[in-house]
Design a protein that fits this description.
single chain, about 280 residues, alpha+beta, Chitinase A, domain 3, 2 domains, four-stranded antiparallel beta sheet, 10 helices, about 50% helix
């Protein structure tokens, strides 16, 4: 599923911050009022897009309350600024122009970028990548790891006498999995050392191996289960695929817009910096 992983790991250079923002809400249900000014569900959705990342440490069932509190305080401060005639300060019009551009940017992004990506697009990519996956066997195994072959044979003898594998692993194994009764969970070929893997995958379900030597010591392996590895469901990866498609679309849109515009960086230092390769988290 390499191609799907590549898609899911795609980075974005332009408009990256907006790729995870929710669609603009249209619900006008009133949640609170401040001196007659309404605070609606649409306002909460807009605030969530603005400060949502800061809410990660707050319990999910408390986030809407925090957002409403934020909007109440926002309204109180806004009213106070008007009362104090701060709108007459020289910098106000500049701020107003900036936030107007930002609002238009968000609206364009939601309409022309996010709105252009459909669930059917994600489903098509998912189906294409799943169709390329080759069947792969997963094995769930337990093991007992000991110092010597003699110790491994003692463990096998006790198993033959009726000792439970998991309990014996807790008693004898020196590996970190001993606390889980030697349980290694499910794994596929290529995840374990060669000697261990070859012996483990030869076992039938429920069978126990002869002593197996690896760089870590001597193992007794039990095959708990064998099954065909299944790809993730569409619902499990849908949002990741859509997010990657939105990022891809954002790059295409920004490239097209830049190609039609005359962009001139006047400041020499900034111009020089922009000519250098991008450093940091958005570098491809």
């Amino acid at each position: 599923m390499k191609a799907l992983k590549t898609l899911l790991g795609a980075s974005v250079i332009a408009l990256a911050a907006m790729a995870s923002a929710p669609a603009i809400a249209q619900d006008s249900k009133v949640l609170a009022t401040v001196d007659g000014t309404e605070i609606t569900e649409a306002d909460v959705a807009t605030a969530r897009a603005e400060i949502g990342a800061e809410l990660a440490q707050i319990p999910a069932d408390q986030r809407d309350r925090v957002l409403v509190e934020f909007l109440i305080e926002n309204q109180l401060l806004s009213t106070a600024a008007e009362t104090d005639k701060l709108t007459e300060q020289p910098g106000f019009e500049r701020r107003l122009k900036y936030y107007r551009r930002r609002a238009l940017r968000d609206l364009y992004f939601e309409t022309k970028v996010r709105g252009a990506v459909k669930e059917d697009d994600a489903r098509k990519i998912y189906d294409e990548q799943v169709a390329k996956i080759k069947p792969e066997t997963e094995l769930r195994a337990r093991h007992i790891l000991v110092e010597s072959e003699a110790d491994a044979r003692v463990a096998i003898e006790r198993l033959n006498r009726g000792d439970e594998f998991a309990e014996l692993a807790k008693e004898l194994s020196k590996g970190p999995s001993k606390v889980q009764g030697g349980d290694l969970g499910y794994f596929t070929k290529g995840q374990m050392v060669k000697e261990f893997e070859e012996a483990a995958f030869k076992l039938e379900k429920g069978a126990t191996s002869e002593p197996v030597k690896t760089q870590f010591g001597w193992h007794v392996i039990k095959a708990e289960d064998k099954r065909e590895k299944k790809p993730p469901t569409f619902d499990a990866v849908k949002e990741q695929i859509i997010s990657a498609l939105v990022q891809q679309k954002a790059q295409e849109v920004m490239k097209a817009l830049r190609s039609k515009a005359k962009v001139e960086v006047v400041d020499p230092a900034i111009k020089k910096a922009m000519e250098q390769p991008v450093q940091g988290s958005f570098q491809q």
